[in-house]
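Hello K.,

You asked for the raw outputs rather than the summary table, so here they are, unedited. I folded two proteins back to back in the same session to keep the settings identical. This is the first:
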Amino acid sequence: MLLSVVQNDPRYGEKKENIQQCLSMMETVRADLYVLPELFATGYNFIDKDEVHALAETYDNGITFTELEKYCRKKRCFVIFGFAEREGEKLYNSAALLGFNGIKGLYRKVHLFDREKLFFEPGNLGFQVFDVPFGKVGLMICFDWYFPESARTLALMGAQLIAHPSNLVLPNCPDSMPTRSLENRVYTATANRVGTEDRGGHSLTFIGKSQITTPYGKILCRLAEKKAEVAVEEIDLSLAVDKKLAGMNNLFKDRRPDMYILNTLK
């Protein structure tokens, strides 16, 4: 399959323009699946909940869904993207999967980063893996990567590819994702953004470096730190099925859950 990561430079609150920026980049490459950043159309650095409410969309409705679904149908492809989701009075930092054949999926970010806790509810759907024609795709968002349980859970659920919409400001993720791929024998696709948002006394600069990594920890592509751009790579998801290592070892069968301490904090 052909996998693309899209790295944009959004302007806060300018949804139509931000969506069009990504669509224009996507038009330059052909892919079966495009992965877009977290909150790619709204911007990230909110001042208060009223701002989030004004920019949020209900699941399967709104301009973001409408425009991307049209693109999926036109190009017969799939798109994963991050968005601010409104469900009643509750707000979630979410990611959606859209496809040309009506397949849809929703994930709500489990691990909220810093000031996100002022605006969003913690995700309540659990980690999600979806069947698409080319394989099994799991979703996590940005800061989820910092918790190895996130990627491991998705891999144990059968994910061959982990799509990772992000708005990264910390420097560590690009060099760490090969380890997430290696320890779970899965592909990962981190789609980050670039640019700076200075609002309400809080300034955030996003690090770019979107990338695609193989189940063997090889970085197939890494985008620039400060430039909006897009990349596409041909990948073979069957490589993520076999969890065998040298000789008698298997990444999953050799696990010893009885020896692990997973719940120590009360």
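The second followed immediately with the same parameters:
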Amino acid sequence: MLKLSYSELVKEIHDKAGVSEEEINSRVNKKLELLKDLISKEGAAHIVANELGVKLVQVSSEKKLKISDVMPGLNFINLDAKIISIYEVRSFKTEKREGKVANIFIGDETGTSRLVLWDTKLIELVEKSKLKEGDIISIKNAYSKENNGNKELHLGNKGEIIINPEKISIENIMTQRQSNQKPINMLKENEFAEIMGTVVQLFEPKSYFACPTCNKKAEFVNGVYLCNEHGNISAKEIPIVNFFLDDGTDNIRVVCFRDAAEKMLDNKFESVKNNPGEFDSLKNDVLGKQIRISGKVNKNMMFDRLEFTAHKIQDIDPKQLIEELKRTN
């Protein structure tokens, strides 16, 4: 998919951005350190080019990629994927524009990605429940960006989605139970996995304010919230919930944002955050609960330990949990 070698990429970035090759190599090495084994050296160069506003390789509008092929900064991306999770449609308003945005978590045999929908007609597919978890979708004319170290696919008014196209099937997605369900003591940094176990500790919820468009953390300056990319915004409050999950092999701290956090709080974030009594009652109900979590393993550098960022949380029957744990161990 990448048509240029690393040295050719560096030269093109140098020629188009006027940045020295030493500076480019330094930026690439920092990306490799940040993202570890998630990307190649060439892929890191594409991210650096995107940050510098340099357009490199244009993907053929006829060729279909796999999710692992996608690098930030590409346009006209076509690929097939399976829907893993669908999140609620959100409204946003900035100084320049207002509208709605929808987020879908998708995967194929090579990886997973967030798919962000900006076009009204595409968002209506979510609002009218025409897209469902488990559907296969063919995506056309997407573009890719980097967000907090992760690659994302975006679909604007030139984008298309075909639902359950004929003769296309996707098996063995890495977040499916049969392929990546793992005991906690076998988890490795940077992998996507599914774990299940018992909630043994729940901490009081916290929150931060973020841009409704790009979901990045907003800064509060002189009485208004500011986003580095979108300027003066009407920030939305993002709930954060931390808890410990134990599966008998080990325990791990789980971090939840947005929908996953609301799930753990039984959709009572607003009433719980300022009411310790209500939180204590909720905590008593949650402790001892058996759940299944899909997400990503991350390294907390401050405490030198692995933690799990939840993408999706499901309640499971205790008898089912016992049987599955027996098969896992």
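The longest helix spans residues 21-35.

Happy to rerun anything if the numbers look odd on your end.

Regards,
P.
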